[in-house]
Each structure stands twice: as structure tokens, then as C-alpha cells.
Amino acid sequence: MAERGEEKSQKEDLPPDIKDWSKHQVREWTLTLDDVDDCVADILLQHDINGPSLLLLDTDDFKKIGVNFGPAKLIIHARHEVVKLKKEELVASKHLPRGPCKPYPFCKYNDTYRYMENDILDPTESGASDLIEPCHEYKAFNNTTDEATMTRLTEEVIRFAAACMNSRTNGTIHFGIGDKPHGQVLGVVVKDREAYARKIHSAIHYFEHKHKQTAHSCIKPPRFVGVLNRNETSSDKYVIEVDIVPDSTLCEENIYHIINMDTKKGNKKVKGKETRQFFVRDGSSSRDLLAPTTFAKPMVEYNQFVAGNAQRAQLRKQAEEKHLNVIKSSTQGSRLSQMITGKTLSLDKSHFERYVIVTNKSHPTHLESLGFLVELNPIAVLDFDPESAQNGLQCRFQQHSPVNDHLPVQYKIAEGVEDIAKKLKLTRTTSWVFCNGGIEDEAPSDIDKWLVEKGSSIRDVVSFLCRKDVLPNKRFLVIFLLWSTVSDSMDPLVKTFSMFYQELRGTEQILCICDNRQAFTSWKDLVDAQCRINIAHRCIYELSFTEVNGTILSLWSKKRRSSRFLPCGGGSKVLLEKKVERALNTLEVLCVNQCEGGNQDQIVLEENFYRGGKVSWWNFYFSEQPGSSPFIKRDKFDFIINTVIPDLGNLGKACVLFNLMHLPGCGGTTLAMHTLWALRKKFRCAVLRDINADLAEVANQVVKLLLYDHEEQLPRVPVLLMIDDLDDKEKVFDLQRAIDEECTKKNIPSKSAQVILLNCMRSESSGKTEQTEETVFIGNTLSETEQKLFEEKLVEIEKTHKNADTFYGFMIMKKNFKPEYVEGVARNTLKSFNIKQKHAQLLAVLVLLNVYCKGASLSVSLCEEFLGLQPKPVCGTIKVEEGFEKFSTLIATCSVEGKVVFKAVKMIHSSIASHCLEELTTTHNVNRADITDLLLTTDKLYESTQGKDQLLQDVRHILVKRHYSEDECKFSPLIQHIASETPGLEEMVLQNASKRFEKDAVVSQLLARYYYLKKKDFSAAEDWASKARALSRDSSYFADTSAQVVKHELKNAIENCKEEPLSPEKLDMLLKMAQSAIVAFQETQSLAKKESSQQVCPFNTAGCLGEIQVGELVIKVLSKTPIFSSENVRHDIMSEVLSGVLELQAVERNDKRRNKNTQYYKILKQFEDVLCNLKCRMKINFDFLDNFYVNLGSRSGMKDSREERMKNELFRCFMDYAKLFCKTDSAALLRNKTMNHKLELHKAKQFLEMKKADTFFGILNCLSNNISPEIMKIAKLSALVCAPEHKPTVKERINFIYVNVVLSCIKLASTHIAPYPRLIELLFKVLREQIPLNENLPLHFIAVALLWPRQHCPDGLPPTNLRTHISQMRTSYHMVMKDVYNGKWPIVHFILGKKQGYERLVPLEEIKRCIRTGQEEFTLMWENGTIWKDQKVQERLCRVTGQVMNKFILADTCDPRLKLEITPMFQSQLSGHAQQSKVSFFVGFSIRGPVALDIK
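Predicted structure:
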């Protein structure tokens, strides 16, 4: 019944799966069921029963909706039948036979071949052919669980073996291969392999006794060939195979009978009578010639066969001899060497820079031949084995080399190509792409479904890897490693080959490796069918994988194959494992035995270095070999080696820093690397590869290098890390802090320096020549000693190098950097320069980039594309240098560590680039605007080639980057030079820049700045500012640009306004603009706080300063009106109106000219909110910025030139503010005696405000401003303000305390200083009062500093609530500064001293005076801890003791019960100290709380 119902449902075209049925389809199906009334179908419809709900219903559910028990059971039964049929169809589809496959190699046991379920074995069951080619017999053998079945298997083996031996043919009998369809791989579940072997061995007794030994030799042990599921995962099934080899030397002319073996039903052996059988191969089966027959002469056939036995034996012998005489004559070893190196025959100098591996399921035996794959260090492995991570290739590979596991979806281009490559770490660590599931719960796909389910994502991977901006064009090789035979046209490897073939447009960059001809033939045929090409010439198949492994490993130099070592204590060494070294991918590790055993070309490397290329470790190595002269030692070398490094190593801080400052092209990098080379046996030396790498990751890897293989050993060998060309000193300090933090996490003791950073940094100024313990400077002048060394070296160079005249890098230094020499080189080389030629254009671009972006380069791929060099995937093609023709002597190749690692060309020397640019502009009439225009408008430069992102970044840099240290810094040096050289063309350049960087908000911002600063075209400026904001809506910097446009338009309107006084209409226009600017700057402030609090970037102060500047402009506007003229009384009235003290209505009422000024008052009243709050808003912003600048510094303490300019502008604005709001000019008030007393107090407060002494941070700023005479007047007036009769506020009394403390630091002998006990009494009094929230921070800061107890205090116990003050100070700090302290560090204002009274607080400025060094050097000494070694500093400061408690120290006081929590300035100094262990330290005071300095 249900079947009929099912048939009807199919006729109604119902979906095969019930889950897909609608409620109407459920009704239709129910109507087709016999014995179910139509009303039941209607009930189901009424209750909205659809397919999913139908699957959930039981009899109770049916009863609830009104369906009786009988029809309910019928429906449920019919439903089960539909579900069952669906499952059967699914199972049947999975077991459909697949394509043909080859059998396991005959008489092999260690081959890696495996069958795939449902494949069809290619050979049919057959009889003897050429006697050597095996015949085959298949047995399904579905059940192997009982003893009877085991017996059947052995008897089948004996029958087949006897037939093969008698017929003298090799043969294989297969168990687990089906008959329907013929040859289908089914597999057999095998629980005990040994049982099968024992059973077959014991069955040999069926042979005659005299032939048992021969049978034992001819019947090979059973082979168990694994059967894979269709999705290439492992199963528990095997095909059991037994090979028969009737060797002529064993069988001779014998015949083989089987005794007493007859298992047919009903055939009982007659007791005492021996039954004999004689089997031969007869077509596809084995036939017994002694079996009963209907022939009249049953023994005739047997006798004939026996008679011909001698002939068969002879034929067998001949066949064996013929087979053995086939000598294996293969040249595939040399072919492999040629193809994998691009014909260089050396992997050290391989034409291919990168390798991509495509592989399928491996066998455990393959994993023993994995060395070559590890050494190739592939950039990516496309792995189609879903079990690779569990027990396959990936599992074994990652034991030797680090990998990043990826899914194909991660390669889909959803953002910038190089950004994706950077996220994937594509050129740094092998990317292991699981192409058929196996990680992250992704299920594998069957072969026939893989293309649909996963094919498109693999296409994304292949397309991504073949892009010219990811891997070098024609310089990477795709290797297909066919561990398993590919036999199905739908196999993923076949499809993937097709994808690579299409992307690479041929097979020149493809190499296929398998280990047998059978696998090769199958692969070749499948590729031919798929792509219509013969792949044989790109295949290696006659070598085993062991031979492949050995061949490829032999192509590496001895150095590459040899072990690398790191230094350990006492001169010992430790092996640096390859996996560990590759995992340190942000570092280039310099080993103790670097370069030993190498075969690099000394001449080539030396020429590259002397021409101006970067020095390599090989240059140092060659200089130490017998017969070579030593590497030139710069004068500073011995000082660094013998003084600087040892002194730094003795500092008690985990990470210390040393600066090697140098002018470009003066050998700074060479000196730094020479230092590392000389110290490689004493330190674990490394160079930071990528200056843009994540600092936390760099720190992690540096500490891993430090701890490698001697975590427990103390003392450890420190790390010496070189940082080269990092322009931002702030970032260097950030790295130092990051390493400190990492050492803290690992609890590494820091009694001595564990990591020394050698920061090799370019300096643009040659003014600094002194050297200190923290900084060495290399200038552009050689000493006499150095000049002599260079002259001696030149003599040696000229002997060994024919083209020494082009060694410009060496000669520039040898000539002591004389500009005349460089000018001559530039002039002579550029004689034939023609800007219309491609190579000339490329040189001009490279020159421009190098002049305005230090270290800029162009990728080799880009140059090849631009010059049309058409590289090929073999060596011997034209080198990129040759493409530059006569200008090739000016460039050198280098490696660039960007988002991807790539090879590039650069100018050999910065001075060469500068003089070439001058030569182009003066002699060849090619100006900067021309070259920049060429750079921006030539699309060919920005096509998909390696280094595209780096080029865009460099181009953007030369357009946008301003030098704030220069007086004129409105635009980048390039734009300013273009404007000076070719006035007006800078606008064209900027317009072209906006087209090249269409989606770049910074470039749109640049256009906006150009139009409002240079062109005064505020409409255009507003358009560009709006575009910038649209591209980055939440950025305070672009909001500031919009505000700046309005501000500058206002400023320009005021400057161009010649009216005096202003007309009402003009006043209205200007105030509207001012109001708009104020609103815009306030929005900028809000966004800046949001950015800072969310840690997007440090706080942007531009919005606060901009609002102040607009306020200043408003004052100028008002001073041009008749209401607020410049006369004294009017001046004071304006001050009071803008202060909100005096209303405009009152001014109007008392104005004798109010009728005349009615229009002015009407307009002013429209802006009354802005005007009456103007002083308040300006004061808020002044205080906000002063608090920000005084109490917070950069994490490094370095002065920021941009910030310094803003401070100068802030000071100028404040002077204008003070002129209006901080003095009273009215003579009438001075004549009024009743007002005189109040006026004196008022003027005192105005003076304090004018000197910024009305805030605690303004007073603290006096410590660094050196205002000795004024501070005494401030103290005097502050005392006046705080006189009891004047009822001073809490803030005024707190300020009074600050003034006295600061004055004591500046001039302790001053008579204006309040007695110390009185000051402390005042402090206690204020502490007992109600404190406004905004005064908490200054009060608790000074209270903690002044009341910090001595460890031995004879005057009584310290205040016990000091802990509360510290806690409240920290809370207040986070509340007040939370919006702005991101990226900043609270400044230490005072340090606890040894003396008493005021002298207990030692200001930081006094420490600086002890050290007597510049700000930058002081900052470095502070970070390293060198300051605390100074004798004067030690004599002045008080060392305190305490106990370590978690991340803090509990400082001791004279009261054993009172322990004060103090935070270490550097957490790493606590590392290695056990909990509650005793430490000593200095106490510093910042507004975030007390800090511990120089912990010991």
C-alpha cells in the first residue's frame, strides 16, 4: 500500500525529501494513500501540517487533531516507507561504481598505493599472457568473520597458486573485489592480519610433500591494501592480495598436484583414499584437469598438458631472462635537478625563489622521505588529504618546520591583496591549505562532489598564489607530489592541475613527481583528457621518493645542509633547530657558525657591496679567510664593542637600548652588522626583518630566542637585536617596553640586561658628533685612520676586481664624501639620459623616490614588467640590472620585508640619488613636477606586481609626509620644492595624486589644506575636506580639516577686511563663520576623546587648539566694532562680556551711542551664547591642554616636533588671551578708593592666571620653564590670595601649597616660602574639608608626595590614611585623564630625597642637571636605568625598601603596620624576585600614583 502511495507521490512530482513538502503537498500525498479517507487529508491541511511537522507526529499527536488511531498508523507507516526509500537511494548512489584504477604493484609490499572504495580494477580476470605480466582473479569475500570463511580463502589461494605454478605464469588473487560490477573495490574488514598469514602458510600442506618448499617460495605472503572512503579518509577495510611467482629455478619442469582438498557439498572423501587435483589457468578461472568429465578419455587433456610442461618451463625461463635484461636506463635524476632549480643545478642559487606544493594522501612510508620538502620550505602546500593534520603529511611536516593552517576561503579577495598575504603570513611561514576539509570541523567531500562543493574556493587559492603581486613572476615552481595514484577524472588534483595550467598559461612552472610508471601513466592520461596536453616532459616517475629526497637534498650546499648553532654559557653551543628558527620569522638570526661550508660567489658578493649594496654576513666571513685583508674597522667600532655593550649588559633592566645614529650612506648599518658579527659568539644576535611587524609578536620571538634551550640555565646569554632604519624613535621605545613586558610574563630575572637593542637610525642632522654610553654618531667625515684603511683596501680591490671604477659606494666613502666626486659620477652616468626611454623613466622615478623617501625601492617584478624583460622560468634570462642599460651602475638589488617579502632595486647611495635629481633638473630639463607626474599617471607602474602596495605607500609618503622640524612645514618637502621650482605645477601634481589615491582620505585632506592654505579657494577646500570626511567619518583628524577650512576662511576674511569699524553685515557674516568653526572644532574634540578612549590613536589636540584660535579671531572681530573699540574702558567691557560677567543688554543700556549701534547689538545678541561663553571655553581648552602637556608625556619621553609647534602656538594664543582677560586698564576703577582693595586682589588673581599659576599643572610647569624672578612674585601674590580675610577656595589653597613646593625647588632660600610645618598644617586642614571632585587629583598627588613617611621617623607615626590618598589619586587620575592618556605616560615630577622638609622632594629637573645631557639622551638613560648609576644622583635620592607582592611593592615605613602600595616603573625589574622578597628602590611621584625606580 505504502509503495503504491509512494508511486503516486512521485507522479505528483513531490520533492523526494519530506522535509521539503508544503502543507498542500502533504494533503496531496495523504489523498494517494489507500484506506485513508479524504477527510483526514483535509484535517492535516486545516492544522497546517507540512513536511517537517509530518516527520514529528506520533499517534497521540494525530489523536489530538482528530485523526483516529487506524488512519494514523497507516500514515505513519507510509511516512516511514518514504523515508526508508530515500535512505536506500542515498546509499545506492554512494556505492555506484567509479572509474578504472590500477592494481597494487605486483610483488611489492612497501608501496604506498591504496584503493578507493567503488573504483573498478582495470585488468580483467585472465589467464596466462606473457608469463611475467600477472593474471588476476577477483573474489568478493564479503564475510570474513568465521573459521569456514577463512578456510575458503586459503583454499582459493591454494587452487589459484597451483594453477599459476602449473601454467608457469605470475598471478595475483584479490579478495574484496566484487563481481557485480566486475572488479569493483569493496574491501574486507580485517581484524587479525597475522591469522591470515598463518592460515595460508599452513595450507601449503595440500601440496605434495616434495613440493611444499617450492610452493612456500612461490606463494608470497598476503598483502593488505588499504581502502579509502570516497572522500579520501581512511576506512577499516582492506583488499587482501596474494601474489604467485613460479620462478623457473624453483619450479624447473615439475608439475603440482593438490592432495585431499575438495570442499564441494556432498563430496565426501572416501576414507583411506587420496584425492588429487591438478589446476591450470583457463581463461579467467582455475580449472582442475583431473576433475570427473563426460569425455570418453578423461586423462587426455591432463596428459597433453603434462607432455608440454618442459616447453612451458623453457618459455618461463626465457621470459624471466628477457625481463631481467631490461636495464633500467634513466636520466630522471638529472632531469629532476634541472627542473627543480630552473637549470642552475643548485638550490642555493635556484632560479625559483618560491615553491608551491600540491599533494594528495600520503602513506606512512612516504613520511620517511620528507627532508627535501622541509628544506624547500614551500610558501604554500595545497593538501587534499583530510586526515593530514591527524596522521599525515602536515602532522609530520610541522614537527620539523612551522606552518599556518588555512582554509581555502581565507584566500578569497575581499580586501587588498597584500593585506591578505600579510594576514596569512604568506611569505614568512608555510601556509598549509586544507583543500578537502580536515580542520575547523569542515567535512571532506567525495571525489565526485568535490568540484561542486569546494572547487570554487580552490580556484580562489590558485588565482591568488599566481598573482604577480603575490609571488614573483616566473620565479616560483608548482610541484605536484602524487603520493597516491590518481585514477579518477574527477579527482581534485586533476581539477587543480587544470587551474594552475590556466593561471600560469602553460606547464613551464609545473613539476609532477610520482614514484612509479603506473601512477605516471594514469596521471598523464587524465591530464591529457582534461587539458589536451602531454605532461610527460614535466614528470618524474622513475625515481622512488627516497631517491627524490636524496637528489633534491644533494642540490643544497654543505652550509645549507649543516646544522646551525647558537652560543650558550661558557663558550658552549646549542643546536638551533630549523623549526625554531623558521618560527622566529620576524628575526634574522645570526648563528655562531654563520656562512661556514657555503659556496657563495665571493667576487659577486663583494662587487655588490662595494657598488653600494647592503653588506651581508658573507662580506665579514670572506674578510676573515686566509689571504684576505680584515674588514675595515670604523673608529667607533672598538668603543661600541669594549665599552658601550659591556656597560649596557651590566644594567639591571631586562631590555636596554643603544642608538647608533648615522647620516645616510655613511656606513651606519655596516658598522651595526659588523658589531653583531664580532659578538655572535658572546650574544644571541639577530636583526629585525620587518620594521612594521607587530611589536608584541617581535617581543615574543626575541624572548623565545633568549630562552631557547636554556630556560633553567643562569646567567643566560643575552640577545643583541639590531633594528635598522626605523624612523620613529617612539616605536623603538615601544618595542623596548614590549620586550620588558614579555620578560615580565616569563618571569625572567633582570639583574643584568637580557636583551640589548642596537637601534641603527638615520639622522638628517650632522650637528651631533659627541658620543655617550647610550648613543654613538657616525658622520660624513672619515678620520685619518679610517682614510688610511680605505686607501689600503682600494689597493686590494683593484687587484681582484676589474670594474673597481664603478664601486661608487666604496669610493664615495674613500673620497671622504666629497660632493665633487658624486656630482661627477651623476653627470657622467646620465650623459645619454632621454626621458622618453623606458629605462630612463624608471631611473628618474627611482631617483625621486629615494630623495624624498629614504630607502625607497622598486620591485624587480615591476621593473621587468615596465621594461618588458619577459622573464622565463629558467636561469640565464636577462637580469633586471641589465634592463637599466648604462644606468645599471647606479642601482643595486636588495630584499624588501614588506607585507610580502620581495626582491627590489634601489639607488646605491642617497647622495647619488640627490645629485642625479639635480643633474636631471639642471642639465636635462626634467623637473620634479615632470617626474612626479610620470610617477602618478603611469598606470603600468601600478599593475599587479610584487611591491605594488609598498610603492603606493612610498608615493603617498613623498606627497603627504611633512617635516615638522622645519620652519616651513605646511606641505611635504616634495610639494614645497615643486612649488618653488615650477610655481603652479604643484596643483596639477596634487590633482593627479587625488586620482591615483581616489579612496585615500589623507590625500583628499592634503588637497583641502592646499586650497585653503595656498590658493585661498575655500569652496574647493571645503569640497575636498568633505570628501576626506566621507571616506573616514569617525576620524578626528579629518573633522579637524573641515573645521580648519572654516577657520582659515574666517581668518582670511578678517585680514582682507579694510573696514574700520566693521559694517553690521560684515560682523554678521564673520560671527556666523566663527560659530560654525567653533561647532566643528568641538566635534573634533569629541571624536578625539572617543578615539583615545577606544585606543584607536593618541589624543588629537588639534580640536582644542582650533577652538582657542577661533576665540582669538572672534576677539579681533569684536575689537573692530564701535561697541568694543580699543580704548581702555571698551576693552574692559569686552573682557567682561566675553567672560559672561556683563550682559549685552546692560552694555546697550549704558551705551550713549546705543541708537547709532542698534544694528550691532541686534547681531551680537544672536550670538550671545557664543560670546558670553568665549572666555570660559578658551580657558577650559587652555587648562585642558596644559594639563595634558604637563602631566603626560610620550611613552618614550621624546619631544615631538609637531607637538612642540602646537605648544608654541598655544603659548602665543595665551599671550593674546592674557592681554584681554588678565589685566584691568580702566583708570576710573583705580581712582575709586573703595574699590582699591578688591582691585588689588583681582589683579593678583589676574597675574596668577596670566602666569598660569592658577592651576596646579601650570605651577608644576614652572619647574621646567626657569622663571626664577616671576615664581617669587607668584608666591607673594598666592599668599595674598590665600590670606584668611580673602576666604580662599580649596583650589587656591592647594595652589598655594604647590607654589611653595615649586619655589623651594627653584630657590630654597627665598623669603617668600612658607615655613614647612605651616605648609603641612595647611595641607592637613584642606584634607579634612569637603573636596570638590575636580580638586581631588591635585590634592592627593601633593599630599602623597609631602606626607610620604620616612622609614625611620623620630617625629611620630605617619598618617595612616596615606593608603587612602594613594587609592583616591589613582581613581581620580583614571576619571580625569581616561579620555586622553592612551599612548601617553604620566610624568614623574618628583623623586623622594634623603634630606628633610622641602628638600625631601627632588624635582626631575634637578636630576637632569646632575646628568647634564640633552633631552633625547636623558630619555634613553631613563629607559635604560643608567641615570641611577650617577654618583650625584645616588647622593641626592633616598633608597626605600619593601616587599614584592604580586605586581606591586609594599613599601616599608616607620610603622610596621603601614605598608604603602607602589607600582614599578618597569615591571620587568620585579621578575625573578620571589613573592614577599625584599627589594630596594627609589620612589617617584606621578599623578597616577607613586612609582618604584631602579629596583634591586
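Summary: Residues 1-12, 263-270, 1227-1231 have pLDDT under 50 and may be disordered.
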